[in-house]
Write a structure and sequence with these properties.
This protein has 220 residues and is mainly α. The protein contains ten helices and no strands. The longest helix is centred in the N-terminal third of the chain and has 21 residues.
């Protein structure tokens, strides 16, 4: 849903349909031109939804709002957002994401992609989980929790597992509190080195490269 929403809102704004994305927007009933333009945009977007919404819930909303005022595409978008953010479906989606981010292990569980791709995908799942939580009024995950979850996920990879230990050690020596951003930067650097080593036929980077990972990017 998040990827679809991003693409849809960008396209809608490019087509000057942004007012239909605002559930509370109403045309000025005293202005015939404003009302006519709004209805024309609504009908156009409705025709797009008829063609592009192929899921069961999407088709249901199209049929439901085909019988209301002027083919209410604005209401269809409102109902789709509610379905994916505050319904039982959204709660199940949130629960499924939490289960995944708290249990997945790179190298143990199946994942198509290298170390860098896994980290990028994991961070995106954290973002989506926070996005779903915020819509229900729940707070986003604290940065320290994100750091712990990602560290657990890459734990099977020795070079990545040691990143947090090294960062915490260096931080204690310099009286610096580690942050999520600095940890992620370190981890992405290490993952890139590992991926490059595998691309060139080495299962692991050499020791000098590994030392460089731990010596750089650990401070903001």
């Amino acid at each position: 849903m998040a990827q679809w929403k991003l693409h849809f809102t960008a396209t809608a704004r490019a087509k000057d349909l942004q007012e239909l994305l605002d559930h509370h927007h109403c045309p000025d009933p005293s202005d015939p031109d404003d009302l006519a333009v709004f209805n024309a945009k609504n009908e156009f977007l409705f025709s797009v939804f008829v063609d592009k919404l192929t899921t069961d819930e999407g088709k249901s909303y199209v049929r439901q709002h085909a019988t209301t005022r002027t083919f209410d595409a604005q209401a269809i978008y409102r109902d789709l957002c509610a379905y994916h953010t505050s319904s039982t479906h959204a709660q199940l989606d949130t629960s499924a994401k939490l289960t995944w981010i708290t249990s997945v292990k790179y190298g143990r569980d199946r994942f198509r992609g290298g170390h860098s791709a896994f980290i990028a995908y994991f961070v995106e799942q954290l973002r989506l989980y926070d996005e779903l939580n915020v819509t229900t009024g729940a707070p986003p995950l604290p940065d320290e929790s994100k750091r712990t979850l990602l560290n657990n996920a890459v734990n099977p990879v020795p070079e990545l597992r040691t990143i947090r230990v090294t960062q915490d050690t260096l931080s204690s020596q310099s009286n610096y509190t580690p942050t999520w951003d600095s940890y992620l930067s370190l981890l992405q650097t290490a993952a890139t080195v590992l991926d490059n080593a595998q691309t060139h036929g080495n299962s692991r980077p050499d020791n000098s490269t590994s030392r460089k990972i731990h010596q750089t990017s650990w401070v903001p």
